[in-house]
Write a structure and sequence with these properties.
Layout (H helix, E strand, L loop, with lengths): L6 H5 L9 E6 L2 E11 L10 E14 L4 E3 L4 E4 L5 E16 L18 E2 L1
Parallel strand pairs: 1-7
Antiparallel strand pairs: 1-2, 2-6, 3-4, 3-5, 3-6
Length: about 120
C-alpha cells in the first residue's frame, strides 16, 4: 500500500523514551522513530552503520574522539564499530535509518535494550 508518513503524527503515538518504533521499511532497512531524554548507553554496532536525524530538539552524540552536536534538521552517521552514546538535551525526537538487524543498544544488553520493535 502506498502512503505518505507524517513524522509529527507518528511521534505523537510514542509514549516511552528510548523505545524505537518502526515507521517504514526499504531495501532491508528500517526507518525508526524514537524519543530520547537524557543519556542513553555507550555501545557500538559491529556490522551496521546508523543514521540519526534530529527532527525536534538537540542531540549530543558522545564519541570517544569528541562530541558532535546535532540540532533540528541535522543528521550524523555513526560508522559501524564506533562507540557512541546519544544524549538528548533535554528531549529529542530522532529518525533512525539502519538495517533491520540493528539492536538499539548494539553490543550492550541493558534495561534500555528493545528486542521486539512495534510498527506505528
Amino acid at each position: 500500500m502506498l502512503q505518505k508518513v507524517n513524522l509529527l503524527d507518528k511521534f505523537s503515538l510514542i509514549d516511552r523514551y528510548e523505545c524505537p518504533k518502526i515507521v517504514g521499511e526499504l531495501n532491508g532497512q528500517y526507518v525508526k522513530l524514537s524519543k530520547l531524554k537524557g543519556e542513553f548507553v555507550w555501545h557500538k554496532h559491529d556490522a551496521e552503520d546508523e543514521l540519526f536525524l534530529v527532527v525536534k530538539g538537540r542531540l549530543r552524540m558522545k564519541l570517544r574522539s569528541g562530541d558532535i552536536i546535532l540540532d533540528e534538521g541535522e543528521f550524523f552517521i555513526v560508522p559501524r564499530g564506533v562507540e557512541h552514546d546519544p544524549v538528548a538535551e533535554p528531549e529529542c525526537f530522532v529518525l533512525l535509518f539502519e538495517p533491520k538487524s540493528t539492536l538499539n543498544t548494539g553490543d550492550v544488553q541493558s534495561e534500555k535494550t528493545v528486542k521486539d520493535l512495534d510498527w506505528i
